[in-house]
Amino acid sequence: MIDEAIFKKHLLFRLNKTSVGWLDGDMENGNTKKADIVNHAVKVAIEIKDDTNYKTVFPKEEGVIYTASHDLTKMNQRYADHIKSANDKFKNYPGHKTILIFRTDFVITEVIKYAIEGLHQFKKVEEDLTYAGRKGKYSTYIRNNIGCFVIIVKDKVDFFPNAYADESRVLNKKEVETILGFKIKEI
């Protein structure tokens, strides 16, 4: 995975080829937390987060590729911290639609989506297990300023809208494809 700063620079270049006005949010004046990329004319803010905890190990000789095992609770907590950080930055862009991009080497994006949305939890009531909702590190309130999630794994780009977002923040798949210039798959 290329360095986040290089990815951001390439994405800014790509965005400005399709429409003008994209800025490096970190270069804007002020003491507030800033999104990585912003376009005030079209009112879109983008934050980029890297999941560097996932590692794939390739064999040095013939053999099987293996990966570090993943505890879904820890994955949920790690992504929740990224989400809280992005949500706090997006608060400073009222009226903007927002995209949180996750870059990772973890290829099963449906598992990432599951970890982001919260883990299913069950409680034992007498002899039966009863569904008790989703469990996450923070409440769903920490993501109300995030319109959608984009997960990039190498050349694969997946998308899902944020069910807990304020309506004014949400972008649909077609809008995200147009903005980013990537063909994406909704998961």
How are the SSEs ordered, and which strands pair?
Blueprint lengths: L3 H15 L4 E2 L12 E3 L4 E8 L4 E2 L8 E2 L4 H19 L6 E8 L4 H9 L1 E7 L2 E8 L12 E6 L2 E6 L11 H8 L4 E2 L1
Parallel strand pairs: 3-6, 6-9, 10-11
Antiparallel strand pairs: 1-2, 2-3, 4-5, 7-8, 9-10
Mean pLDDT: 88
Low-confidence stretches: none
Report Rg: 18 Å
Shape: globular
Number of helices: 4
The description of the largest β-sheet is: 7 strands, mixed
Class of secondary structure makeup: alpha/beta
Report strand %.
Answer: 25-35%
The total domain count is 1
Name its key features:
alpha/beta; 187 residues; single chain; seven-stranded mixed sheet; globular; 4 helices; two-stranded antiparallel sheet
Structure, explained:
By secondary structure, the protein is α/β, with parallel strands linked by helices. The protein has one domain (4-186). Helices cover 27% and strands 29% of the residues. The protein has helices at residues 4-18, 72-90, 109-117, 173-180; strands spanning 23-24, 37-39, 44-51, 56-57, 66-67, 97-104, 119-125, 128-135, 148-153, 156-161, 185-186. The strands form 3 sheets. The chain has a 7-stranded mixed β-sheet with strand order 1-2-3-6-9-10-11, with helices on both faces. Helix 2 (72-90) crosses helix 3.
